[in-house]
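Review form for a predicted model. The reviewer records the input and the model, then writes brief findings.
Reviewer: anonymous (R2)
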Amino acid sequence: MTKFYSVGNQHFKNKVEALIESHRTQIPVKWDPNITFWQNECDKFIPDEWANFKITDLYKTRALQLREKYDYLILNYSGGMDSWNILYTFLVNNIKLDEIHVKSSDDVDEKIDVYSFSTNSSNFHSEWKFNILPDLQYLQTYYPQIKITISNYIKNCLDTETINSFTDKLFNANCYIGVFELMRQTQTSPTIKNNTSLKIGDIWGIDKPSFHILENGDMGMYFVDSTFSVAHDSFPAAQEFFYYTPDLPQLTIIQSIMMYKYIIANSNIAEFRPYFSIDRVHTRKFNPSLYQLWLKDWSSTKRVVAAETIYQDSWLNKQHKFQVDKPEIMNQYGRTRDKIYIDHPESINVKRLWARGWLALCEEIGQDIQHDNFIKPIMSKYFVLQKGKIYGI
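Model under review:
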C-alpha cells in the first residue's frame, strides 16, 4: 500500500515533513494510496466471479500469501476485531504464525490499579486486563509455539530516555499526535530491531474498510491517511496490511460491499445513513471536533456491522470481547482513551516538553492544532462500487 506524500515534485514518507515543505512553498500536500491501481481494480471487479467465495476463504488466502512470502511473521495485536480476525485465521487454518506483538502500559496501570467494565473511552486501559490478557493466556496454554512480545510504551510515566525521544516522535507523526498515542503507535517488536538475517513480515490489521453511501445512492470505497497512521514504519521489516493489499485487492472490495449490503438491508441502523454522505463529512472548512464526533459514531457503527458481516465467524468465537467506545479529543496532550495517563502526576515533565514541541510544530506547519492534537486527514478519491443494484456477494 503506497503511502507517500508529495509537495510539488518532492515526495515524503513523513506527513509532518510534507506539511513543513507545503507551508514553506505554499504548495498543497497530496497523498497517493496507489490511486491508479485501486481505480483499475474497482473498475474491473465483477461480482458474479466472486459470488461463491466465502470471506473466510479470502482471509485464509491472504494468510497463506504472507506465510509464503516471509521467513518470520509478526502480528501487531490489539484484541480488537481486526487483529483478532487475523489471529483467528492463522489458528483455525493451522497456518504458522511466529509472533504476536502487543503494547502495554502496565507500569502505570499497576500503580493505578483501577479497572472496570465501563465502556467509556477513558477506561481504555481496562482492555488490557479484560480483553488482551485473557487472549495471551489462551495462546500460552494452547499455542505455546507462538512467541508473545509485550512492549511497554510508558515506562514509569516517564523515564528520562523516553522524555528525550519525544521531539523526534512529534515530528514523525501522521494525524493523531497526542503524546501517549504516539508512544503507543511507534512501538515495534524488538525482534525486528535485533534481526540480522530473517525476512520479516510485520502484519497490521488497522481498521475496517471505509466507504460512503453517497447522496445519489451510489456506494464509494475510499482511503484516508489517518487510518494508516496507527501503523508506523516497520523498517527493516516489511510492513504488511492484512486487509489493504495489492496482493489481494478483492478482499477490501468485498468487505466494503458486504458491509454496505447489511446497512441497506437493516432499517434498525438506518439513522446512521446521514453519516455516510461524503458531502456532510468532508466539508470545505475542516472542523476537527466535528470530524471526531462523526468518526466516533461511524466507527461505532462499523463495529456493529463488521461483527454481523465480515468478522461474523471469528467474532462469534472470541470469548473475551471487552472494548471501550472510540475516543474523542480531550486536550492538547491526547484523546480521552489516554485520560488516565494524561492526568497522572508523573506525566508533568513530558507534558511540559510536549507543549513546547507543539508550539514549534504549529509554527513549522502553519496550522493551529495545539488544542486538537489532530492534523487534518487527507482523503483519497472514492471508487464507486455500487450503482443502483445490490451485488450478489
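Findings: Residues 288-308 form the longest helix (21 residues).
Further findings: The chain has a mean pLDDT of 81.
Recommendation: see findings above.
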